[in-house]
Amino acid sequence: MHCGKAWDTESMADGDELEKKRRKIEALSEKMAVDEGHVACGGDWDGRWNHLKKFLERSGPFTLPDFEPGTETLQFLLETCKILVIGAGGLGCELLKNLALSGFRNIHVVDMDTIDISNLNRQFLFRSKDVGRPKAEVAAEFVNSRVPGCNVTPHCQKIQDFDESFYRKFHIIVCGLDSVIARRWMNGMLISLLNYENGVVDQSTIIPLIDGGTEGFKGNARVILPGMTACIDCTLELYPPQINFPMCTIASMPRLPEHCIEFARILQWPKEEPFGDGVSLDGDNPEHIQWVFMKAQERASEFNITGVTYRLTQGVVKRVIPAVASTNAVIAAACATEAFKIATSAYVTLNNYLVFSDVDGLYTYTFEAERKENCSACSQVPQDLQFSSSAKLQDVLQYLTESTSLQMKSPAITTTLQGKNKTLYLQTVASIEERTRPNLCKTLKELGLADGQELAVADVTTPQTVLFKLNFTS
Amino acid sequence: MAANKAAKEQKYDRQLRLWGDHGQEALENAHVCLVNATATGTEILKNLVLPGIGAFTIVDGHKVSGEDVGNKLNRAQAATELLQELNSDVSGNFVEEVRAAGSYEMSQIWLDTCLRLGAVLWNAEVPFLVCRTYGLVGCMRLVVREHTVVESHPDNALEDLRLDQPFTELKNHIDSYDLDSMEKKDHSHTPWIIIVAKFLEKWYSEHNFQMPKNYKEKEAFRELLRQGILKNENGAPEDEENFDEAIKNVNTALNATKISSTVEDIFSCDLCDNITAQTPAFWVMARAVRDFVRDDGNGILPVRGTIPDMIADSEKFIKLQNVYREKALQDASVVSKHVESLLQSVGKVHGWHLNNFITNAAFLRVVRCRSLEEEYSIESVNKDEITSCMDNPDSEMVLYLMLRSIDRFYQQHSHYPGVYDYQVEEDISRLKVCVNSLLQEYGLSVSVKDDYIHEFCRCGSAEPHTVAAFLGGCAAQEAIKIITQQFVPFNNTFIYNAMTQTSATFQL
């Protein structure tokens, strides 16, 4: 990954000319430093990028083979490199700062959220006066005003609002997301940009994806080269599905304060609709949380369970993940270091996964996550579906959602029958769901599906449909 | 006042869930001092200001240079203003004077400052964290004489179930169950702890009162449990999730209850033996627990009182939970009596969080770091650690040796290697001389690859922001651990290699 280079061999040979040029530039720089507060074109003052120049203008023993010391790499960073940051939250704020102070100037940031007071303990680009405003906007404003020459463009939207034409423009994409689904979608988008020639990926279509995640005092950072190294879906087992309490425990056998809270949230709220018909529970509304809290306390005292607190209630209802500034600082720093390495070839890139924890001392573990041969996202191989011809479509649906390697949320299944496209089942549009629901109870044979039939499955976890091949076991 | 408190609780909500209100209180009562507002220093402070540290003071006599964010103020003042902005709950100030307490001059020489400051702080028993970003390498050194931790928050703590030696109340509770006479509903919702206890009794009668010890025996015990699952009319086993849980937990539930060596070490410290009026609370409480262990607990710690969630109906679970809870309270009051009598003997009273200590008795930790003087002295340098790590020439230890070498370089040449473009090549050979003299002086028969010497010249003591930010996050959390006395600090040298994204901790 780097700018093209062309040494002007003639001027190199002319040492005197070069020396004259150097002295001229030096004199100019001195003049700039003396002028109080004056900045020359480009917004750079003397010494501003000294710390970077040491790595970019000198050869070193740990650089990538294609690294060539010179001024052009810094130029590339400052003027050409376009980098996208997904998320302007705990990781995003740190990332924007890190990138801006590392010479990246052409930065875009995407975040659909608005600022909440509970963000302020770590998302330092925001102040209490900013609560309620869109994160991407405030973050961009802050960086643009404090880092001269840096241009951050905010997008207060969902990542799904953009298509290939948007993402294709970037040299590097860094994610500071808080959802596995969003990560998988981003992963899928970059994979969809790949061009293959004779089964080999065209390297110029690869956009490196740097992904960071944190939770409490733990975090991880990874580098993904779509089509070449392990992608998010290759290692889906590293993100185990969220465990919910069994309904029978919540409904009739609570033992923990959490069970009492879930009872109020899942069963009592829909039944009593305490704030009006059709008004759903809003985790950000303190009155709603207070209601759940009180109901949970009632239930808890009925069963002699202790430990229901307002804080616990809020935590369970909102699925709160504890967070501090320090962990986000560490992980975002690691991600930004990798962005710098990728953009400059100044050092070997992380290959490819870093795990961090500072609960007991400080612990890091670095390893190479392996690609999955039959990865549903990046392997280009139609996924194998093994079912008996007398299995029901419902069984297939269950497999798609429950398998740890797929973990789909609400898959829509279509296929081609007698030359025509047919939707077998789709959940996300009410009218289609109703129309196709009877198909769930039909067997695959009854639906007219044959051995070897290809099914196309769409889901929120991926921007592209996933191809499956049906293999009848009986 | 109340509104402000509520706003703070909301602001700090995400971190309160990690260190609790008492941890936050400790943080808000703390005052930290940062010496040198470098990129690393300001990053550390940022990560302390955001979570609400009580106060900070920056000591720095430097002017802002072009390499710092373009600002013509003095560095200490500039940093203080920027950081103050991040959190209005925090009070910050700065000192530009180069004379600190004790009237010694702050040296331009980094190492000199460290060692002298280190000595002062060691005597004053003030924890000292030395952080440095040098090229793509970050280094942290913790210097604290003794740091005790009650709430270490261990990741994979074993439960304290006492199945190998059930206390009387537990035994009575277990006896109150008769699995054979139970209806299916009750049978399937009996806590697995009861089930394992019952079948253990059966096992004892057939195995000379010995617990299942090895894999074979544990597997046989699991089979015994499987046989205990109810069968339907056709003789097929019913779906009894509680029995599945029992089988799964056989591995850990049947281990002998005993005190870990870490805790034994704490009990055998001098501080535990000789209680005086000056003994810190931690040691008085540790001694009280030790007295319990020896006089009342039959060699075991007081009962912890918690059990994990498990498949069971509410009544059975709560009843069982209460058996453990009440025993824990009982044991705690005995420990409390020991505390009182210890304090009486030295003429004191207390208002300590005794229950917190007792619940965490199995997870107590003590961290003791060597002083900088010990690390740097030829007589006490940790040669073994250094040489054994260097068996791998790319171990992070080589980065430590390089950092020691560049300080040596500075002492001789009054600048860091590679700072000036035109001198890089020359500095490489001069640095190599420093490396060799360091190794020789300390009698370290290790070899340092030329690549590292080259790299440490190449970087010209630059402080890249992302490496400073990484270290800043690490250091801030270590400071928070010291202040809140929760979670366990590292001991005592942490090296981060941003080139390979690896790290290591050495005890030097």
Automatic annotation (TrEMBL), chain B:
Q: Name one Pfam family in it.
A: ThiF
This protein's superkingdom? Eukaryota
Q: THIF-type NAD/FAD binding fold domain location, by residue?
A: 12-95
Output one GO BP term. Answer: protein neddylation
Determine if Transcription is one of this entry's keywords.
Answer: no
> What pathway does this protein act in?
Protein modification; protein neddylation
Q: Which GO terms describe its cellular component?
A: cytoplasm
Which keywords fit this entry according to its UniProt record?
A: Ubl conjugation pathway
Q: Which family does it belong to?
A: Belongs to the ubiquitin-activating E1 family. ULA1 subfamily.
Its protein name is NEDD8-activating enzyme E1 regulatory subunit
Q: Which organism is it from?
A: Denticeps clupeoides (denticle herring)
